[in-house]
Design a protein that fits this description.
- By secondary structure, this protein is α/β, with parallel strands linked by helices.
- It has a single domain (4-227), classed as Alpha-Beta Barrel (TIM Barrel).
- It is built from ten helices and eleven strands.
- It has helices spanning 20-28, 55-58, 69-75, 83-89, 104-117, 129-138, 156-162, 176-184, 197-206, 216-227; strands at 4-8, 33-40, 46-48, 53-54, 60-63, 94-99, 123-127, 143-147, 166-170, 188-192, 210-213.
- Strands 1-2-6-7-8-9-10-11 form an eight-stranded parallel β-barrel, surrounded by six helices. A two-stranded antiparallel sheet has the order 4-5.
- Helix 4 crosses helix 5, helix 5 (104-117) crosses helix 6 and helix 9 crosses helix 10.
């Protein structure tokens, strides 16, 4: 069985996270999919940045939602891309759009960018349930990866409403029972964010269908050893 190797915010050990350089590096390193985060600027443009402010990565205590896309470009020297440009760079692989805001508007702006790029067949979505509900309402065929942080199982009503293809767990919640139960319900299992080769090997052995990592090269090496039948040790 093939395990999907997902590059978390690109390849952040080699280039700053959520930048075009990071996405290019991840694709070159063999990522099957690139995960990126989308927020909306003050003028409604979907931009690729995880945090609500520019402080951690760019040194500006300014909220993304209070800045126009042009102001964000100027403050970051073009480092924060708009989603349209990120989709162009990741065109050869799948793209997981994470929507961290409780915002239907951000979800709809992201969907519009995906449609402009003709990328609907290779994009899927995770993030806040409010945003995912907006995705499902606007696009009945959208592929959803429901991020789930709790040990309790998702309610059946939520699964019926969102119709996810994936359940996306912090890696510590993935067990043999989790995988068996989800596979039994026709769901794929994704785990995040895994940087230890030892934990990568454990998740692959458990039957996880996707692993998200900041170290895409390390994950590719683990998967290559498995495919060659090398004892993981």
């Amino acid at each position: 069985m093939s395990v999907q190797a997902v590059a978390h915010r690109g390849d952040p050990y080699h280039a700053r996270e959520n930048t075009l350089a990071s996405f290019r590096s991840a694709v070159a390193a063999g990522a099957d999919a690139v995960e990126l985060d989308v927020r909306r600027s003050a003028d409604g443009v979907p931009v690729v940045v995880h945090d609500a402010t520019l402080e951690r990565l760019w040194g500006h205590r300014r909220a993304v939602a209070e800045l126009t896309a042009e102001e964000i470009r100027e403050l970051t020297g073009g480092g924060v891309p708009v989603l349209d440009d990120a989709l162009a760079v990741t065109s050869s692989v799948r793209t997981l759009i994470d929507l961290p805001e409780r915002s239907a508007g951000t979800a709809l702006a992201a969907l519009a960018a995906v449609r402009r790029a003709g990328a609907g067949g290779r994009v899927y979505y995770s993030g806040d349930p409010v945003a995912l509900r907006a995705v499902r309402t606007a696009d009945p065929d959208a592929e959803i990866s429901l991020t789930w942080h709790r040990t309790a199982r998702p309610r059946g009503t939520l699964l019926d409403e969102l119709r996810p293809r994936w359940l996306n767990y912090p890696f510590g919640l993935v067990t043999a029972r989790t995988v068996a139960e989800d596979h039994g319900r026709g769901l794929l299992v994704a785990a995040w964010t895994v940087d230890s080769p030892r934990v990568m090997r454990r998740l692959v052995a458990l039957g996880a269908d996707s692993v998200t990592t900041n170290r895409i090269g390390a994950l590719r090496a683990v998967l290559a050893r498995r495919d060659r039948g090398v004892n993981p040790g």
